Amino acid sequence: xxxxxxxxxxxxxxxxxxxxxxxxxxxxxxxxxxxxxxxxxxxxxxxxxxxxxxxxxxxxxxxxxxxxxxxxxxxxxxxxxxxxxxxxxxxxxxxxxxxxxxxxxxxxx
Amino acid sequence: xxxxxxxxxxxxxxxxxxxxxxxxxxxxxxxxxxxxxxxxxxxxxxxxxxxxxxxxxxxxxxxxxxxxxxxxxxxxxxxxxxxxxxxxxxxxxxxxxxxxxxxxxxxxxxxxxx
Lengths: 109, 114
Hints:
The complex is a heterodimer of chains A (109) and B (114). Chain A is mainly beta.
């Protein structure tokens, strides 16, 4: 059975800290891995990773895929309270997205 | 402004009643999806549609039905057969079903059935 597992399930950090979120997967016919940020409502797209070892960056956020380890990490540096959200990892397999349970990040002032 | 509109934001129903959630997009996307989100669980796929007048069951289709009569619209009906309907429902669309098309999500409908 296909699985996408995120860890930790939740964490609380102080503003300015660096956060590393993990996503591991076991799926047949892997195509891509995506990261989304969900604040109150609609998840918003962050990154799509298809090739191993190539880091994608957007401001203070970055992500990398390791196909050998079947995993990805999402890093957030110099966290701000606006980074508080649920971060969702999803894997595309057979044309469909399979989501992990998400990591809830709370950034305190 | 292009986007996906879900309505209503909040919906309350009594057990045994069918209820329809609306999803409209003006992004000219071919593919549309319905997901269900429960606390502590990831988004789970209910139904998806790649093209007008065609749709496929996702992982948890039992107790739900959909239609895709227009490209812009993909309503979801939660029937009385759905055993545990209280949840947050998210509609999404993408240019096409496939690895190069990230999903764009609506703001969701929170359904409470008592």
